[in-house]
Amino acid sequence: MNTLITGQLVSEKESLFPNLENLFCDINIQEYENAVHRAKESVISFLEETNQPFSGVSPRELRKQFENIDLNDPAISYDEVFDEVTRLYIKHAVAFHHPKYTAHLNCPVVIPAVAAEMLISSINSSLDTWDQSAGGTLMEQKLIDWTCGEIGFGSSSDGIFTSGGSQSNLMGMLLARDHYALEHFNHNIKKDGLPEQAHRFRIFVSDAAHFSIQKSASILGLGEQAVVKIKTDRSFRMNSVLLEDAVRKEIENGNIPIAVAATAGTTDFGNVDPLTNIAGIAKQYKLWFHVDAAYGCALLLTEKYRHLIQGIEQAHSVTVDYHKSFFQPVSSSGFILNDRKYFGLITHYADYLNPKDHDENEIPNQVNKSIQTTRRFDALKLWFTLRIIGKKGLGTYIDRIIHTADEAATLLENDPNFELLNRSDLSALVFRYSADPFKTFDLSRINTYIKSQLYKSGNGLVAGTKVNGQFYLKFTILNPLTTIEDIKSILNTIKQYGNEYIEVN
Fold first, then answer.
1. Which of 231, 260, 310, 340 could hold 158 in an S-S bridge, CB 3.0 to 4.6 Å?
2. What is the Cα–Cα distance from 495 to 482, expressed in whole angstroms?
3. Per the confidence metrics, is the pTM higher than 0.85?
4. Cα dist. 191→183, 187, 347, 352 in Å?
5. C-alpha distances in Å from residue 300, one per residue of 330, 360, 375, 496, 497
6. Strand 333-337 and strand 428-433: pairing?
7. Which residues pair with 204 in a beta bridge?
8. What's the average pLDDT block by block, 10 residues per block, for the chain (505 residues)?
9. Four-residue CA torsion sign, 82, 88, 91, 92
10. Is 252 exposed, middle or buried (0-12, 13-18, 19+ CB in 10 A)?
11. Cβ neighbours around 469 below 10 Å, total
């Protein structure tokens, strides 16, 4: 009887809504199953057939394949579109899960988070208000509370999931700016715009900090001139003595220090600024203390290395990138505050969305804390991960990664073909090939050539950066499957290309 009734209802819907066989709804379950199955097959093929991190295709070669594609053509079948996407994308996708991918801050992802992605995309909740997400709101808040506790914040702390570290850093600088103006000038920037003193606001970062702090200053109307860069020490950590000198100098020059942004895990070197010292200076000069732990949040997972971010608990705000160090698919990040009251600086009420009486009725609307409105339920990925793998399980991955990076550093130090700039608190190593004993060649040119050849071959990928105007190669080890044997293999390939350059030139 139930089967007949269901079939009758489906037939009625199909007659009422013809040609809607691709819409995600109850009458198209079979279509959904077929599409998802085909997608699963493509992913499995990607895993099975990937024998190196990259195909080596050039932009020119790949662009040619797009020339005859007309997106206004009639619809094609799933088989055809998957074949097309395999040819244009999957075949040339950079494989972050491959052990010889050691370039940027891209991690392999864990399967529980991938499973969660299917629910996130299909159910498609929006996490801005309670009436669009319900349980999703509470799950996200539970994960924020967990993160606050891991950082060492108290019961008044709070946070929000964001699209990435750049957005989180922007929010940190936004609240630093608005809080200072309100606290010291009784000026509400949200309502009245920038105060006349804003052009004298100053934010302090190390010269190894992420560029998003400068970008944030620009977006916030302070200009890049508002960012004062502090030289790092020999280990590429912010020099806290020079920081205090710079703060005093800006005050003497009539400027207004408002914030210091420390880095827990610099992009190039993976090192952590002296957070406790910086926290003391921030407190003394009444500065907002922000910690960009987009990379270094990994240290929250490991008992062995947790001490390296001691002092983070004294911050006003913290950036956490789960999609870097917690093995989550992009995007999954967080902005964490030591006191939820600061979110009031950016809260806006809209009658159709989050009317103020919702606060009085204790209805939790996450949009009150976000500069985004519509947001994916990215928190579900972390929920799956913690419930299935757990903090300790993830922590073992981090321990292994740091150990491999330490082994790689020793290898580089003991090999006369290479120069290692510095050891890492985490897993980023900056080095260069320097086998030319007479230094008759430009080492920057040699290492630039090496990096380009590695990319063309696709057999092993490393990143590149400049330090004091000189080009260096960089390992960013974020895969627990990467072994010292993989590192040796990449280094041997680097030697091969380096020797090739010297012989030809």
1. 340
2. 20
3. yes
4. 15, 9, 11, 21
5. 20, 35, 25, 39, 39
6. unpaired
7. 228, 260
8. 50 63 91 95 96 96 94 86 96 97 97 97 93 94 98 98 96 98 96 96 97 97 97 96 98 98 97 98 98 97 96 98 96 97 88 74 84 94 98 97 98 97 96 83 94 96 96 98 98 96 88
9. negative
10. exposed
11. 6
CA distance 479 to 401: 7
Is the omega angle on the peptide bond into residue 427 within 30 degrees of 0, that is, cis?
Answer: no
Three-state SS for 293?
Answer: strand
CA distance 368 to 276: 31
Question: Beta strand 158-162 with 333-337: parallel, antiparallel or unpaired?
Answer: antiparallel
110: its two tokens: 């864990």
* Total length of the chain: 505
Sign of the C-alpha dihedral, residues 103, 101, 411, 494? negative
CATH class, domain 117-388, is: alpha beta
CB atoms under 10 Å from CB of 229, counted, come to: 15
Which amino acid type is present at position 321? D
Instruction: Measure the CA–CA gap between 160 and 144, rounded to whole angstroms.
Output: 7
Domains of the chain, residue spans:
117-388
Helices (H) then strands (E): counts for the chain: 18, 12
For the record, the structure tokens of 55 come out as 């195909």
d(CA 90, CA 82): 9
